[in-house]
Amino acid sequence: MTATPSNAAQAIADLGLQPATLHLNPGVDDLYAHAIRLGEGVQAATGPLTVRTNKTGRSPKDRFIVEDEQTKENVWWEGFNVPIGADVFDRLLAKMVRHAEGGELFVQQVFAGTDPEHRIPVRMITEMAYHSLFIRNMFVRPTAEELQHFQPEWTVLNLPSFKADPAVDGTRSDTFILVNFGRKMIIAGGTQYAGENKKGIFGVLNYLLPEKGVMPMHCSANVGEDGDVALFFGLSGTGKTTLSADPSRKLIGDDEHGWTDNGVFNFEGGCYAKVINLNPEAEPAIYQTTRNYGTVLENVVLDEQGVPDLNDGSLTENTRSAYPIDQIPNIQPGSVGGIPKNVVFLTADAFGVLPPLARLSPEQMMYQFISGFTAKIPGTEEGVVDPTPTFSTCFGAPFMPRHPGEYARLLAQKVQESGAKVWLVNTGWTGGKYGEGHRMSIGHTRALINAALSGQLDDVKFVRDPFFNLEIPTEVPGVPQEVLNPRDAWQDKAAYDETAKKLARMFRENFKRFESGVDQAVTDSMPDPDKN
Ligand code: ATP
Ligand code: MN
Predict the structure, then answer these.
(1) What is the β-pairing status of strands 429-430 and 471-473?
(2) Against a cut of 0.85, is the pTM above it?
(3) In the chain, where are the structural domains located?
C-alpha cells in the first residue's frame, strides 16, 4: 500500500475515526487560515502564528507506557516510566474516536529522524490546526517524492479537547499521554502544549535505538568549520538551543540526536526555543524567528500593535518559538554530522558554585551523566530563597524509557571509541547564588566553549577544585580570570565554601541509588566535600 492521500484517509477510517472534515498534509498558509478560523490564535504583526495554550509546559507525570511482553522487560519502571494496561489504552482510544466524530482532523505525515536508516515515518493526527503547523515545523518534512510512497510506522492521535476522567479511565488526571509499543501508537488528550507532540515520539526513538547500537541523546549539536562536531547535553533551560545556534558554527539540531557508527543525526526538522527576555544582540538568529512568517509562537503576549513582547512573561516564563530549522542562517545541510570531537554537559547551577567550565575524566563523565544535575531558581513562594536542585538521569529522565545504566554504557563506549573530550559547563549563576550573584553572560559561556572546542585549552594549566573534584582551566582567552574559578567570583568565601559543600552533599545523596550499578572508579570520582 502506498500512502497516497486516499490511503491516509483509509488509515483514519480503519482507526474508526469519522471526522466531518479531514485535512491531509495541509501547508503553512492553509494552517494559518484554519488556526485563525478555529480561534486557536492570531497572526502577529511580525508574521508568526501566535497561540495560547491551557497548559504551558509538558505533563511528564501524565505519561504512561503500555506494559506488554516486550516493554515489561526493557523499560526501567522507575521515576517517570509508569506502566498502564493495554485495556486502558484501548478504552481511551475508543472514547477518543467517539469524541472526534463529526469534527475536524489534521494529518501530517512526517519523519522522526534525518538518517534514512534510523528514522521513523509517523502519521500525526491532531485536532488543532496549530499543532499540525507545529508538527510541520518540528519534524522532518518528506519530499514530494517521499510523500508519494509514505508508509507510516507509528501513529499519534492528539485531541486536547478530550479530557480523561481519572476515576473511570485509570489516568492520573484529565491529561494523558499513552505510549503503546505493541500497537505503535501514542494517544494524548487534555493538553494543548504542542511540545507533547514531539516528545512522545522521541521517547519512542530513545527506546528503540539502543537495540541497534545507536545512542539517543537529549542534546543539541553543531559543527565547526573543519567539520568537528560538538554535542551539548542539558536539562530544560540550560542552553542547548541558545548555545548550539552559534554564529561561528553550523547548527545540526537543538534538542535530540542519535549517535551511530558514522556520526550524529538530528531527530527533528525544526527548533523549539525559549524566547522569554530574548536579547536580540546575544541571540540574533533565534530572535529573528519571532519575526518570521511560518513560526509558531506559544504563549507569547502581543502588544497593542500585535508585535510580540518577549519580555512579557504574564502567561508563562516558558514562552516558545517553534520554527523549521532553515530559519537559522547557518545550518548543516541534511542535519547530520560526523563522529563528535567534543561532548559538553550543560548545567544551570542556581547555587552559583559549579565552575563555568571544567574538563571531565571518563569516570566523571559517567558520574555527571547519570546524575544529570541542574538547579531551578526559587519559585515566588514567600520565604523560599534557596534554589531547587534537579537530578534527572541522562539529562532527560522523562524521555528515557530504559535503565540509565544502559544509556550511560552506550555513551561511554561511543566517547571511548571516538576519543571525544568531555566538558561540564555551568550556564547558571556566578558570584553568588540566585538572588545574590548573577547569571553567567552568554558571551563568556560562548568564549569558554569555543576555547574548549578549538583545542585552545590543550596546553593550558588546569587546577582541581576542592569540592567537586573538577579540573578547572587557569586561563581562557577572552574570559576574565576571576570568572574561571567560581570561588574567586564570590566575595564571601565562607559562604561559597558552605554552599559548595551543600551542593556536593546533594550530589552524593542523589547518587546513592546508582552506586551499586557502576564501577568503583566512577564512585571514586564523585564530589567529596568532607574529605577536605
Ligand atoms: P529545552 O530543553 O527546554 O529546550 P534548552 O536547554 O534548549 O531547554 P534554552 O532554550 O537554550 O534551553 O534556554 C536557555 C535560556 O537561558 C535562554 O533563555 C537564554 O537566553 C538564557 N541564558 C542566560 N544566560 C545563559 C548562558 N550563559 N548560557 C546559555 N543560556 C543562557
Ligand atoms: Mn531547547
Answers:
(1) unpaired
(2) yes
(3) 6-212, 215-259+339-525, 271-326
